[in-house]
Design goal:
Pfam families: DeoRC, HTH_DeoR. The protein is an alpha/beta fold and 252 residues long. The protein has helices at residues 3-17, 22-29, 33-45, 68-71, 76-85, 102-111, 125-130, 155-161, 187-198, 237-245, and strands spanning 19-21, 49-52, 55-58, 95-98, 119-122, 137-140, 144-146, 151-153, 166-171, 175-177, 181-184, 200-206, 218-221, 228-230, 249-251.
């Protein structure tokens, strides 16, 4: 196993279990404890975890902004599962505004060969670069680049978004709450999402099951604003009931 593959596996493990031990990881990956400590040091610098005596814990700060390259490896299978389900909503010839999340990236990758004449307006550098030679019609918001998330934000981006009206806004988030609604980890990107949502006829939220009942730093949307909620497995009965109450189409 290569070093980056091992760190991806560590990332997925700590995301599931919230804490990890150096000794256990050393045995699991058949490497020295010193090698594991170097892996944890790198992941700590990326903002994913905090090292402790003998191990590490997952960062739980609601404003923690994990780098895109790290987020892209988290719950990869769940994101792929969610991405497939967006096909039931988006038809050919649709116009979209989409955020810079890794889950939404997976959804756009799914649409790439299965839908025709799709227009995408986005602040995501990753989407713009990856799909620059695809059949998508791409429109960039421009703006100030946030290196951590590979997203463009600021007044220039907001001005571009306010020129357009689209069929769907497609988003993910850091946390989802019955009381606070849809939340994210930083205000500049939250503001971009709010404007995108206001320019869309329908809002689609893509969120894996680990995000339910998790707080985050800043509110983005109320539950009343969401038209479709797509997740990877059946949520709690409480969430099913609230989706019925708020007229949210729940897909799992």
């Amino acid at each position: 196993m290569l070093a980056f593959e091992r760190r991806d596996a560590i990332t997925n493990k700590i995301t599931r279990e919230k804490k990890i031990l150096v000794s256990e990881l050393s045995i699991l990956f058949d490497v020295s404890e010193e090698t594991i400590r170097r892996d944890l040091e790198k992941l700590e610098k990326e903002g994913l975890l905090t090292r402790t005596h003998g191990g590490a814990t997952l960062n739980s700060q609601t404003s923690q902004d994990i780098p895109y390259i790290t987020r892209n490896t988290l719950n990869k299978d769940l994101k792929t599962t969610i991405a497939q389900k967006i096909l039931s909503i988006i038809p050919d010839n649709a116009t979209l505004m989409v955020d810079s999340s890794s889950t939404v990236f997976e959804a756009m990758d799914t649409l790439k060969h299965l839908r025709n004449n799709i227009t995408i307006i986005t602040n995501s550098l990753e989407i713009l670069y990856t799909f620059k030679n695809s059949e998508f019609q791409l429109i960039s918001t421009g703006g100030n680049i946030r290196k951590q998330s590979q997203a463009m934000v600021g007044s220039s981006a907001e001005s571009i978004l306010n020129r357009y009206n689209v069929d769907f806004g497609v988003f993910s988030c850091k946390g989802l709450s019955l009381t606070s609604g849809v939340m994210d980890s930083n205000e500049p990107e939250a503001e971009i999402k709010k404007i995108m949502g206001s320019r869309a006829k329908k809002i689609i939220l893509l969120v894996d099951s680990s995000k339910f009942d998790v707080p985050a730093f800043v509110n983005v949307f109320t539950l009343e604003q969401i038209d479709y909620l797509i997740t990877d497995k059946k949520p709690s009965q409480e969430w099913i009931a609230i989706c019925e109450e708020k007229n949210i189409t729940l897909i799992y």
